[in-house]
Amino acid sequence: MTLAKRIVPCLDVDQGRVVKGVKFVDIRDAGNPVEIAQRYDRAGADEITFLDITASSDGRETLVQVVEAVASEVFMPLTVGGGIRTPADIRRMLNAGADKVGINTAAIDNPDFVHQAAQRFGSQCIVVAIDAKRVSGADEPSRWEVFTHGGRRPTGIDAVSWAQRMAASGAGEILLTSMDRDGTREGFDISLTRAVSDAVPVPVIASGGVGCLQHLVEGVVGGGADAVLAASIFHFGEHTIAEAKAYMAAQGVVVRLAEDP
Amino acid sequence: MATIAVIDYGMGNLRSVGKALEHVDARSRILVTDDPATIRRADRVVLPGVGAIRECMAQLRRLELDAVIREVGSNKPFLGVCLGMQALLTTSEENGGMEALGMFPGEVRHFTACFAEAGVPTPGKVPHMGWNQVRQTRAHPLWRGIPDGSWFYFVHSYFVPLLDDAWTAGMTTYGLEFTAVIARENIIATQFHPEKSQTAGLALLANFTRWDGTA
Hints:
The complex is a heterodimer. Chain A has one domain: TIM Barrel, CATH 3.20.20.70. Chain A is globular and about 45 Å long. In chain A, strands 1-4-5-6-7-10-11-12 form an eight-stranded parallel barrel, surrounded by eight helices. The longest helix of chain A has 17 residues, at 57-73. Chain A contains ten helices and twelve strands. By secondary structure, chain A is of the alpha/beta class. In chain A, helix 1 (33-43) packs parallel to helix 2 and helix 8 (213-221) packs across helix 10. Chain B has a single domain, classed as Rossmann fold (3-Layer(aba) Sandwich). Chain B has helices spanning 14-24, 36-41, 53-62, 66-72, 83-86, 111-118, 198-210; strands at 3-7, 29-33, 44-47, 78-81, 89-92, 98-99, 104-110, 128-133, 135-136, 151-156, 158-159, 168-174, 176-184, 187-190. The relative contact order of chain B is 0.17. In chain B, the strands form three sheets. An eight-stranded mixed β-sheet of chain B has the order 2-1-3-4-14-13-12-9, with helices on both faces. Chain B has a four-stranded mixed β-sheet with strand order 6-5-7-11. Chain A binds chain B through residues 1-6, 41, 46, 68, 71-72, 75-77, 94-99, 119-125, 172-173, 201-204, 226-227, 256, 260-261, and chain B through 12-13, 15-16, 19-20, 23, 50-52, 55, 112, 124-133, 135, 146-151, 153-157, 172-174, 193, 195-198, 200-202.
């Protein structure tokens, strides 16, 4: 008996519909969030993450309704990220049926927010999302910086020490996205994932760049991630969750398989 | 119509527990409530919970629900979930040491400290977050139809150490062995979240809605 590595499909939601951008351009509609969540539930996904990419606040209310609808039909862990800026935002999402919320920009604007949120709601529901980009040259030791605004705006903050600081502030989990790899299908940034995973005592979800099943294995084995997040390889039916788990299990990764008890 | 009271003490994701119970039991009315009289009248009671024990105990005492829980915990089918399980112990080392409800003797411990004490060679990340298997240490009506070793969803940093065998219905290993399910007479309590554990979790909740409270 041991803790299984998790496979987490990520649904980008805009105005209540699931979309997935390639490097945040060329967005395609990939369907209805409740139907997709039910499909992933039946397929044996370990969690589902909703990332709200809606710009307007009206659209945000739509996401609350989406979470409520999904949580009434699907009895598995749900994480919601995007636009979480205040304790009231967290409360609204938890009340709607989310188990965890992802905090990204709001933590950078006000690092104490994560501490306050963890004190009030518990670390178990606070995920700090970090978008990181490699800033070191080819001949230098690896260094990654935290970026905001879809990878366009540098913050000057070192990604590894930021992850440590957020874990110390009460984050219960780190969702680590490589902005260099996101949408490329070239695989996770394994050295980034390993650097953060080794640096923090809390679980790390690797994100950004999955293009094939071997990438999922690399995230766990090479990167030391506790969970792997992917979108397009699942949304467009290239692979099922069951295929991904069977593949990972065959490589010696402990996963929760449908044929298990 | 039978009723199931889900105790609302202002913390955590109560909607999921309520929705999951509605999903598995169309015959009962699910009441998410902090009203002592409603809880006392209910046929079954659920104490859910996420978050920190200090806030949990403070809210229960403020709403005068601690005495109500002890009372219904002695006379009707009662399900504690996660923090709602930990709160049943005597004390917790969370928040610098807290007195809890004292319905089971023992202290809730933190994984990190216990990994060090036990000399666990490769301690896992804390919180213990995700799916782990539960070994059924004895037969219980709530295990009906659920295979031994089924996977359930956990998310917690504190845990209930191994208790008297007579009070344990399930164990899980995460670096060390801990109590995953407490069971004594009309009380059952799970460290994992049945309402988030897909098929196996819904089966356990369905069993609870049909349980008469006898082991």
